[in-house]
């Protein structure tokens, strides 16, 4: 059936207007969780109650995880200051470096920026935070992210603190969907022994990298060997644990040319996974990419199947949404036909 373009345009307009009348309040309600409202009062990890009177226009991030989050939610223009470790991000314009010669926060440089809010990840000392507060700045200090869910919620929180709720919620939802796909892929699968090594060090129990590995469906051999925190890994541990996979980062990609390593199934079978150093070391949105990458390497078939299921579910949700919107009173099948024809027309363009 051929639908004239003029009628198509009228039909599409009617469809949009109908959706606005029939589902407008529902649409507003669905987005209410993504809306930022001020004044906003929150309590940070130091137990300090902070009130943000109006939407911040300028933000200083004291560590790269906060800078990465602002970047990933598309709030680059609000960021006016970053640490020297945040320069790896492809900023649209130059940012003021607020760290000193030793990489630590330079209080005077932060104060000179006079930002509306300062984001201080957990690696920033409470003493430094108090110095900035004494200078009259609004500072939010984050607690440590221990799980992937913590990273997701921190993404939403940063959006709330900086007036970027809708974008942050969209990014967080995207992260959740990826993590759900990974969880489905690794469910019921064996957890191969994996070693993360960088410059002779490894990440054991109690580290965020341990959480990354286990979420991706691996057994962290460092934790199994009783290592906690970040420590040097001995040849004995490597040999005894015999990892099937070794994960390295792109800033320290080399594996020691030692018998202990050369004898592992990981090296013998060339099962080495290289990940981005910033993404694996910062509890921020790109961490999810690392989890996904490792899971897809360790469990390729299961991950491919889970990804296909996720894609199918998303397509079904989209189809259901279109069907629901086109069942408004007074239009019915004709409007639905116009909508489908319009979609095809737009795809051709």
UniProtKB/TrEMBL annotation:
It comes from the Archaea. InterPro entries: ABC_Transporter_SBP, ABC_transptr_periplasmic_BD, Peripla_PGF_1, PGF_CTERM. Residues 58-302 form the Fe/B12 periplasmic-binding domain. Gene3D superfamilies: Nitrogenase molybdenum iron protein domain. Keywords: Signal. It holds the Pfam family Peripla_BP_2. PANTHER family: MOLYBDATE-BINDING PROTEIN MOLA, VITAMIN B12-BINDING PROTEIN. NCBIfam families: peripla_PGF_1, PGF_CTERM. This is Cobalamin ABC transporter substrate-binding protein.
């Amino acid at each position: 059936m051929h639908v004239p373009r003029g009628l198509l345009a009228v039909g599409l307009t009617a469809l949009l207007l109908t959706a606005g009348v029939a589902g407008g309040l529902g649409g507003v309600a669905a987005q209410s969780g993504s809306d930022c409202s001020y004044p906003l009062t929150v309590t940070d990890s130091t137990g300090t109650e902070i009130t943000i009177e109006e939407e911040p226009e300028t933000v200083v991030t004291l560590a790269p995880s906060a800078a990465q989050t602002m970047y990933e939610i598309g709030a680059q223009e609000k960021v006016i200051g970053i640490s020297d470790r945040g320069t790896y991000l492809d900023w649209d314009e130059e940012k003021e470096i607020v760290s000193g010669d030793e990489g630590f926060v330079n209080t005077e440089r932060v104060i000179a920026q006079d930002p509306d809010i300062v984001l201080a990840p957990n690696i920033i000392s409470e003493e430094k935070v108090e110095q900035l507060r004494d200078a009259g700045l609004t500072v939010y200090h984050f607690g440590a992210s221990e799980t992937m869910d913590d990273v997701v919620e921190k993404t939403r929180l940063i959006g709330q603190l900086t007036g970027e709720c809708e974008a942050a919620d969209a990014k967080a939802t995207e992260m959740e969907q990826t993590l759900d796909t990974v969880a489905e892929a690794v469910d019921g699968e064996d957890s191969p022994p994996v070693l993360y090594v960088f410059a002779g060090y490894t990440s054991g129990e109690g580290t965020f990298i341990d959480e990354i590995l286990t979420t991706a469906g691996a057994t962290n051999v460092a934790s199994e060997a009783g290592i906690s925190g970040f420590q040097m890994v001995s040849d004995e541990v490597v040999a005894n644990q015999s990892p099937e996979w070794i994960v390295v980062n792109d800033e320290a990609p080399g594996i020691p040319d030692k018998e202990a390593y050369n004898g592992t199934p990981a090296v013998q079978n060339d099962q080495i996974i290289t990940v981005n150093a910033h993404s694996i070391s910062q509890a921020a949105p790109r961490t999810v990419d690392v989890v996904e990458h490792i899971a897809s390497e360790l469990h390729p078939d299961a991950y491919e199947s889970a990804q296909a299921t996720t894609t199918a579910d998303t397509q079904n949700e989209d189809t259901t949404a279109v069907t629901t919107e086109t069942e408004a009173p007074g239009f019915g099948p004709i409007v639905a036909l116009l909508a489908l024809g319009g979609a095809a027309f737009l795809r051709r363009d």
